[in-house]
Design goal:
Structural class: mainly alpha
Mean pLDDT: 91
Order of helices and strands: HHHHHHHHHHHHH
Low-confidence stretches: 1-7, 13-24
Helix content: over 70%
Largest sheet: none
Strand content: under 5%
Radius of gyration: 21 Å
Shape: elongated
Oligomer: single chain
Amino acid sequence: MVKTGWVWGLIITLAGCASPVSQQNDAKFDKIQAAEARISLGLGYLNSDRYQQAQQNLQQAHQYAPNYYRTSLSMAYYQQRVGETDQADRLYQKALSQASKKGDVYNNYGVFLCEQQRFAEAKEAFLQAVAQPYYHRVSDSYENAAFCQLKAGDTKSAKALLEKATEHDPLNVRAGLQLAKLEIERGQETDAITRIKRLHKRVGVHPSGLLLLVKAYQQQGNTERAAHDAQRLAHQFPESKEYQLYLANEY
């Protein structure tokens, strides 16, 4: 499974379909609710590459609730997207000071740090995320840490982190298949084959899994099984990237 173009597991969730709150003179005006509405709009615009509208809404969220960690976190992500790394770093640090027990803040800061090739700091941030009480995205953060270690060239650490990710979520397809890929590269084809088949049984057949099975069986010299899974790949996923890689013998 080639991870080129893999999207980091940022955890900045939208607040549903909230609308901007305009009744600021209302005695019941909730600044956090108003900020969440603007954050939702701002992130929606940002995900659509409408940066001006995103900035306007996130700045409005900051006016409503400047000391709210999700305001800082969202603004940090905006600055990260537009390449203002120093400002993004300061805003992530601010979010951490506002919510030092929130795993999502550590996770997103870890993503930022890894993008800046600050690999040791990134790993520490991801591990801080999983250490926080009541944090429920543990597998995602272990997975993020693993791919960051791969980017750093530390496959041993990456493998250990992927094992943690799959232990916390056996249905994590990306982590499971990447772990199988590393096992194949280490000559542990039997372990990889068992892992892929178990994952397919749980979540359904995945084209990346089939391509990995082809490679594992070929390395074992089992050409019959390799051909069988190659045929499955061609039959079930003829338009997939994985099948094109198989045809080009680039796997």
